[in-house]
Write a structure and sequence with these properties.
CATH topology: GMP Synthetase, Chain A, domain 3
CATH architecture: 2-Layer Sandwich
Number of strands: 5
Radius of gyration: 20 Å
Helix content: 25-40%
Strand order of the largest sheet: 1-2-3-4-5
Strand content: 15-25%
Number of helices: 4
Distance between the termini: 55 Å
Number of domains: 1
Structural class: alpha+beta
Shape: globular
Order of helices and strands: HHEEEHHEE
């Protein structure tokens, strides 16, 4: 009887392995591939002295950390033009769709995130763009 149990395990091992490989090719695998490719170019200048320092996968989110080397979150958030800056940055989020590393995620349930932090790792603001809002990559 014991032997029959092991026969079943051996018989289903290739199926279980194939299912695991298919899972790697799903969204988690695509996110990790995109993260690795994007991370290979970092750190990189972002804009006006800001630096895109890192990228990480957090569930279905691909999170880019953008750091400001000056100021702190509180004073930046209190600035009179803070809301306009945030809106301007949100309008720029679709530019992420053009990055070759991220194009395979277009049309998926992935979410691109730009997380702006100060020099002390305090969150200034965070912006999101669902990947399904990206135009399909060119054929």
């Amino acid at each position: 009887m014991r032997r029959q149990g092991w026969t079943q395990v051996v018989r289903f091992a290739p199926v279980i392995g194939a299912m695991a490989l298919m899972g790697c090719r799903g969204l988690p695998g695509k996110l990790e591939t995109a993260r690795a490719e994007a991370a290979s170019t970092l750190p990189a200048p972002y804009l006006d002295g800001l630096v895109t320092e890192s990228v990480a996968v957090d569930g279905t989110h691909l999170v880019f950390v953008v750091r400001t080397p000056e100021g702190d979150a509180g004073s930046l958030q209190a600035h009179p033009k803070f809301a306009a800056l945030r809106e301007s940055e949100q309008r720029e989020m679709p530019a992420l769709c053009a990055q070759s590393a991220l194009q395979p995620l277009a049309g998926t349930d992935a979410v691109f995130v730009r997380r702006f932090v100060d020099r002390h790792d305090v969150l200034i603001f965070e912006l999101t763009l669902p990947a399904h809002e990206c135009p399909a990559p060119p054929a």
